[in-house]
């Protein structure tokens, strides 16, 4: 289990032999707060963001430092990162600089701008693990854009939630759950390159995180 703290500490926890407690298996230290992290399937690497940088850590590393650190690809605070779970070198990031970058850390120039929003900052990103060509980003203005990484610089569909988008999550059937500065959980169906409303739950009495 990877646990990011407001202090910048990235804790690695394991389940005790009697399955009754969590035990520390090590830690790493970032200079600043780590707002988001993501992992890959069957990998020892962890992806984090902090300020305007993204970093990759390896839980088997003998140092407290990241194995890769990418600074200045974004010019402002990185709000969110997500990985393509089955591809251990591929991930996406979004920032207050209004850009979504797509990454392949094997390349000499590891990132390119997949999408640049003209109007507002990007607050969340999610990779579709069922069809890895598709990525969605959320904005502080409440819009959700469906992107195709084979067609950078433009979006292929948009939906509006009229609130700051905090989190986006795909399930295995191309459904996208959304939460933000609302007391609702919204679900969209991603099919035929269109985001369609599928479900709304308003049982919470305060904003959903």
UniProtKB/TrEMBL annotation:
Top-level taxon of the source organism: Eukaryota
Any one biological process term the GO annotation gives: oocyte axis specification
Subcellular location: Cytoplasm
Keywords, in A-Z order: Cytoplasm
InterPro entries: Methylosome_Comp_WDR77 (IPR052139), WD40/YVTN_repeat-like_dom_sf (IPR015943), WD40_repeat_dom_sf (IPR036322), WD40_rpt (IPR001680)
The keyword Zinc is assigned to this record: no
GO cellular component: a single term: methylosome
Record-linked PANTHER family: METHYLOSOME PROTEIN 50
Official protein name in the record: Uncharacterized protein
Species per Swiss-Prot/TrEMBL record: Asbolus verrucosus (Desert ironclad beetle)
């Amino acid at each position: 289990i990877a646990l990011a703290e407001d202090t910048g500490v990235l804790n690695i926890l394991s389940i005790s032999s009697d399955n009754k407690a969590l035990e520390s298996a090590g830690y790493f230290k970032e200079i600043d707060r780590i707002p988001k992290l993501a992992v890959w399937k069957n990998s020892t690497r962890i992806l984090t963001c902090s300020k305007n940088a993204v970093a990759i850590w390896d839980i088997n590393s003998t140092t407290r430092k990241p194995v890769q650190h990418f600074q200045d690809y974004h010019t402002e605070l990185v709000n969110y990162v997500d990985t393509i779970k089955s591809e251990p070198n591929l991930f996406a990031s979004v920032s207050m600089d209004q850009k979504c970058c797509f990454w392949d850390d094997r390349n000499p120039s590891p990132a390119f701008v997949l999408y640049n929003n003209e109007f507002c900052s990007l607050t969340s990103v999610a990779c579709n693990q069922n069809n890895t060509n598709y990525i969605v980003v959320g904005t502080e203005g409440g819009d959700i854009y469906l992107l195709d990484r084979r067609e950078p610089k433009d979006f292929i569909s948009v939906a509006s939630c009229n609130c700051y988008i905090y989190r986006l999550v795909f399930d295995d059937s191309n459904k996208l759950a959304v939460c933000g500065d609302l007391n609702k959980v919204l679900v969209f169906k991603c099919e035929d390159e269109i985001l369609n409303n599928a479900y709304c739950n308003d049982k919470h009495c305060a904003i959903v995180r």
